[in-house]
Amino acid sequence: PPESRPEAQPQPGAGRALPVAGRVATGWGEAGPGGPHRGITFAASPGARVVSPCAGRAVYAAPFRSYGLLLIVDCGGEYHFVLAGLDRLDVAAGQRLLAGEPVGLLAGPGGPGASLYVELRRGGRPVDPRPWFAGRG
Which ranges constitute the DSSP H helices of the chain? Predict the structure, then answer.
């Protein structure tokens, strides 16, 4: 039935996973100093394990500006996840990933804080990641 248009729903490769166990500290679209928040910031336990939110390929895995260690995962269908704020990366660019596969850790106790910034991009533009995570199975 034509209840939802396919282009409006995320179409990942296979599998979906929350990238870290924690609470949402800043949600998609919340007002911030630079305008509406274009991702989700999760507050998590110090040293928390970070996992790939989708099956795909790591296209970037290195330090980036003030974001700390940054991972970009190509999930297919023009979707890319940006994960920023990692204290340790356990994957390299070009590596194939499974949904839920460990990719790194957040800062441990005494570190700069355990938070993970997550942005979902489609065709290079930020989109609301909540439907992606709501559809995980």
Answer: 130-134
- Three-class DSSP category at 109: coil
Taking only the tens place, the pLDDT of each residue in 68-124 is 899 999 999 999 999 999 999 999 999 999 999 999 999 877 665 689 999 999 999
**pTM: predicted TM-score of the whole model, two decimal places:** 0.84
In angstroms, the CA 107 to CA 123 distance is 31
39 contacts: CB under 8 Å, gap ≥ 6? 28, 82, 117, 118, 119, 120, 126, 129
Question: Both tokens of residue 3?
Answer: 């209840």
What torsion, rounded to 10 degrees, do the Cα atoms 11, 16, 20, 22 define?
A: 90
Which stretch of DSSP H or E encloses residue 134? helix 130-134
2 token code pair:
């034509």
- Count helices and strands in the chain by DSSP H and E runs: 1, 13
Cα 109 from Cα 70, distance rounded (Å): 20
**Which amino acid is it at 75?**
C
